[in-house]
Specification:
By secondary structure, the chain is of the alpha+beta class. The chain has helices at 12-16, 20-30, 44-50, 60-67, 82-90, 103-107, 122-132, and strands spanning 3-10, 33-40, 72-80, 116-118. Bound molecules: inosine-5'-diphosphate and magnesium ion.
Length: 155
């Protein structure tokens, strides 16, 4: 069991549809700890760095247009196996196929406008957190409720 950090974005559709609060509430309610949070505009350069693995794909121009079209909210989320826990909460890429109960499955019907980004593994998380946050923007604190979220041997 490992405590992990994941880079989460509320994408432009989530900001425009006023779902920032709903998405952040789900993260908090799950017991995960937010250790960084800011709103920013993604530039084409930042989009290319973040989505380097997709840059040659046919859908990339539309993805760039979408992710730069309105602000995003970037979050650094920490917790036991936070990367896979967040991927599970997000649902599958295409909102039409995402299970009810997931963020994408409850709030969306689009493959592109799927509301949330979450790192897909430890290497991606470290890389993406480094792209969106300076070290001093990530905070360290003991959550008062921490000892009631999971047992010591799960941390
Ligand atoms: P993920 O966000 O579930 O990890 P990826 O395959 O890494 O999905 O794709 C990154 C993002 O690119 C998706 O979240 C979605 O916004 C967009 N995307 C993925 N596949 C397509 C596609 O075929 N057409 C248009 N946009 C896509
Ligand atoms: Mg991905």
């Amino acid at each position: 069991m490992a405590t992990e950090r994941s880079l989460i974005l509320v994408k432009p559709d989530g900001v425009q549809r006023r779902l920032i609060g709903a998405i952040v509430t789900r993260i908090e309610n799950r017991g995960l700890k937010i250790v960084g949070m800011k709103m920013l505009n993604v530039t084409p350069e930042l989009a290319g760095e973040h989505y380097a693995e997709h840059i040659e794909k046919p859908f990339y121009p539309l993805l760039e247009e979408f992710i730069t079209a309105a602000p995003v909210v970037a979050l650094a989320v920490e917790g036991p196996e936070a990367i896979s826990v967040m991927r599970g909460m997000m649902g599958t890429t295409n909102g039409r196929e995402s299970a009810p109960g997931t963020i994408r499955g409850d709030y969306g019907v689009s493959r592109q406008m799927n509301l949330i980004h979450g790192s897909d593994g430890p290497e991606a998380a470290a890389r993406e957190l480094g792209i969106y946050f300076k070290p001093e923007e990530l905070v360290d604190y003991e959550p008062t409720l921490g000892e009631w979220v999971c047992a010591d041997d799960e941390k």
